[in-house]
Design goal:
Elements lengths: L1 H13 L10 H6 L1 E5 L7 H9 L1 H6 L6 E5 L4 H10 L5 E5 H9 L5 E8 L4 E5 L14 E4 L4 H11 L9 E4 L2 H9 L5 E5 H9 L3 E5 L7 E6 L1 H6 L1 H20 L1 H12 L3 H7 L11 H16 L9 H4 L3
Parallel strand pairs: 1-2, 6-7, 6-8
Antiparallel strand pairs: 3-10, 4-10, 5-8, 5-9
Helix pairs in contact: 1-5, 3-11, 3-12, 5-6, 6-14, 12-13
């Protein structure tokens, strides 16, 4: 388990080596801000916000002339870029990554929810006889370690008093897990978003999804330092986020078309997946409980070595 902590910490500490062109002299004396732009698996608010410039519209009064977008998909790279000041806002980062960053002493604060989508996270197999956790005993399962999918698998196994020691777990990316399942090189694959949708369309067997196992919590974040210095810009970000969600509610058909185009998906795929996502930005008691559960999972699995106070992680 210690190897996990070392590997993940190393990834965070070296993440900036993969980033280029994110920051400039305190973002030109705060005339501009940088926001992450992550579209996968189905991050519709990010697509809609960028298309309609709601952040810029709501930050102009604070002197922001430019909103820069950085396509940083790795959670470790996102949190490192935030810690370094190259990025001011994480617009869609997994709670797992936020907790890991906080556990490693970084300045990170959750400012709103982004999404919850437990049913979009799935475990598939080519073997239709696998219908329970017990049926997974000894099976080879591919998927990304230290993620919502990983947490879902652990939670599913726990319903039968089983652990990862009872299966053969392979740490792979989602595309690699999908390919391995298709090539019959593994028994099961942990998949989300479009990969899960496409796999299900190919008649693969759905063993389980995240319903009642994980909340699949994605959040928005900044730093306490940035908020202390520029509270009005953070307020502008939150207003822009709300404006995005309001637009999505009143222009659903157009929004789905925008998402399909950005993700290069058929509109029918977006229409099928969209109901699986709850994009309400309000922080609920259930969200806090879900993050507490995630933190405990990370602690028990050795991903972090000390507890993180979830209430303190949320900007007050």
């Amino acid at each position: 388990m210690k190897k996990w902590t070392y590997a993940l910490t190393t990834c965070i500490m070296t993440g900036l080596l993969t980033l280029t062109g994110c920051g400039t002299a305190d973002q030109k004396a705060r005339n501009e801000v940088a926001v992450t732009y992550v579209t996968s698996p189905l991050n519709v608010p990010s697509i809609v916000e960028r298309n309609h410039s709601f952040f810029h519209e709501n930050m102009q009064e604070s002197g922001i002339e430019t909103v820069k977008y950085s396509e940083i998909t790795s959670g470790a790279d996102q949190t490192q870029a935030l810690a370094s000041g190259d990025i001011q806002f994480l617009y869609a980062v997994g709670a797992t990554s936020a907790i890991l960053s906080a556990a490693n002493g970084a300045d990170i604060k959750i400012i709103s929810m982004y999404s919850r989508s437990p049913e979009a996270f799935c475990l598939f197999s080519n073997d239709a006889s696998i219908k329970s956790p017990e049926d997974l005993r000894g099976k080879t399962i591919a998927g990304p370690q230290g993620t919502i999918l990983h947490e879902m698998l652990v939670s599913y196994l726990a319903t039968a008093n089983m652990t990862l020691d009872d299966v053969q777990f392979m740490n792979t990316s989602i595309p690699d897990a999908m390919a391995a399942l298709s090539g019959k090189r593994v028994d099961c694959a942990l998949l989300a978003g479009a990969a899960a949708y496409n796999t299900q369309q190919s008649d693969a067997h759905l063993v389980t999804n995240g319903k009642d196992l994980v909340e699949a919590t994605i959040v928005c974040a900044t730093t306490q330092k940035f908020y202390d210095e520029y509270p009005e810009i953070v307020e502008g970000f939150l207003k822009g986020h709300k404006a995005t969600l309001d637009y999505m509610q009143t222009n659903k058909a157009d929004v789905l078309q925008e998402a399909a185009k950005a993700l290069d998906l058929d509109i029918s795929a977006v229409e099928a997946m969209y109901p699986l996502y709850d994009f309400d930005m309000t922080m609920r008691d259930s969200d806090i409980a879900a993050m507490q559960s995630t933190m405990e999972f990370m602690l028990d699995s050795g991903m972090i070595e000390q507890e993180v106070d979830i209430h303190d992680l949320i900007l007050q």
